[in-house]
Amino acid sequence: MGRKRVTSGMRPTGGMHLGNLLGALENWVRLQDDYDCFFFIVDWHALTTPGGGTAVGYENVGDLRNRVREIAVDWIAAGLDPGKCSIFIQSHVPEVAELHLLFSMITPLGWLERNPAYRDMVQSYRIESPSYGLLGYPTLQAADILAYKGDYVPVGKDQEAHVNMTRDLGQRFNSLYGKKVFPITETLLTPVPRVPGLDGVDRKMSKSSGNYIAVSDSSEETVAKIRSMYTDPVKIRKDDPGHPDGCVVFAFHNIYNKPEASIVRGECENGGRGCVACKAQLAAAMNGALMPIREKRRELEGNPAVIGEILSAGALKAEKIAAETLREVRDAMNLPRRGDF
Ligand code: ATP
Ligand code: MG
Fold first, then answer.
1. Where are the beta strands (DSSP E) in 103-254?
2. Scanning 15, 73, 88, 285, which has its CA 20 to 30 A from the CA of 174?
């Protein structure tokens, strides 16, 4: 028995942000020492939504290649080591598209229509006419994960329902064709599985919503974005008592200034802390924590050839594994092999 496999991806719709970092990537970095890891930039998934503004999507593909490269830079700067894990681009492994097609034959439409993430996406990205591809997002995700027979999938809370569907689809395949081709896939969450957006604690930070702080933002941009964060709307004057639980700034103090979070809470609730100072303190803590990643990013940006080599090597390794899986899948489904007749 080889090591267990870990698989996960990110959409190149925008820059990698704090939600992606805290909800997923920190787990990836931790897992790469002990598991066979496959991390992919899901360019096909980026095309399931229309995009617009700075967000890449099927109506806005001009920046797609740049975004793919930037995400690769983000990942390595944040600690992924290409010597320990395979990093590649989803569309460079065409076996995944074939598996998606075969899975689409056995994905009950009801599973897709009931998928809460589908409804959320249609609502939050204000998609007027959702595509066939968007409805099938989880089927493509299942193909991504199961082409490499992923045992564990480290993702944020918003993706949990998709991973459950991957597990169910794999098990449905195994039982329909009487072969144990796919493992029982499990989700792995981090201690911060849902990071809020700049615009409210009930909003998810998302690339496509533009409510994010990117790892690639400068310190100055970070300061400006923190100034724009949603705070308690009834705390108007500096010494008004505040309600930290509804405040995005407090949510981030709880992450980047954890040891002092209870002091921040107490001072805010007692009216002893103004929002301007509270935001400045957060900006200093956040910029301090992000500084090493940003420095590494700058180094990598100056060396694009290295990124190309890493992505090519990753695709080669991934394709081998996916090709083996697809042979098993075609056999289980009794599809004729070339030269059979
Ligand atoms: P998009 O808006 O284009 O869908 P996104 O910000 O949701 O972008 P994805 O590429 O869809 O990012 O997700 C990449 C990974 O980051 C997934 O594991 C997802 O669960 C996780 N993730 C995304 N947003 C958050 C968040 N706000 N908090 C925690 N995890 C998140
Ligand atoms: Mg998303």
1. 152-154, 186-188, 196-197, 200-204
2. 88
